[in-house]
């Protein structure tokens, strides 16, 4: 997912997105453990998507605190 798409979401939307990405990453890890995962590069991209979403979430939360 691109950062521009994530920046359009509100804080609640970002929190649900992070949870969904973490669930997907868990599924990929289980597939790797059972040797069902063919493309291991998806693990790396999933981790980076989670980090990107968390970074934007923190940015939005700190912007909301400073605006108050």
From TrEMBL:
<dbReference type="GO" id="GO:0022625">
    <property type="term" value="C:cytosolic large ribosomal subunit"/>
</dbReference>
<dbReference type="Pfam" id="PF00831">
    <property type="entry name" value="Ribosomal_L29"/>
</dbReference>
<dbReference type="GO" id="GO:0006412">
    <property type="term" value="P:translation"/>
</dbReference>
<comment type="similarity">
    <text>Belongs to the universal ribosomal protein uL29 family.</text>
</comment>
<keyword id="KW-0689">Ribosomal protein</keyword>
<dbReference type="GO" id="GO:0003735">
    <property type="term" value="F:structural constituent of ribosome"/>
</dbReference>
<dbReference type="InterPro" id="IPR036049">
    <property type="entry name" value="Ribosomal_uL29_sf"/>
</dbReference>
<dbReference type="InterPro" id="IPR050063">
    <property type="entry name" value="Ribosomal_protein_uL29"/>
</dbReference>
<dbReference type="InterPro" id="IPR018254">
    <property type="entry name" value="Ribosomal_uL29_CS"/>
</dbReference>
<protein>
    <recommendedName>
        <fullName>Large ribosomal subunit protein uL29</fullName>
    </recommendedName>
</protein>
<dbReference type="InterPro" id="IPR001854">
    <property type="entry name" value="Ribosomal_uL29"/>
</dbReference>
<keyword id="KW-0687">Ribonucleoprotein</keyword>
């Amino acid at each position: 997912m691109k950062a521009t798409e994530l920046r359009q979401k509100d804080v609640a939307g970002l929190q649900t997105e992070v949870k969904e990405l973490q669930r997907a990453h868990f599924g990929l890890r289980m597939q790797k453990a059972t040797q069902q995962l063919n493309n291991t590069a998806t693990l790396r991209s999933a981790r980076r998507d989670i980090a990107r979403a968390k970074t934007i979430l923190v940015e939005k939360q700190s912007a909301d605190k400073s605006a108050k």
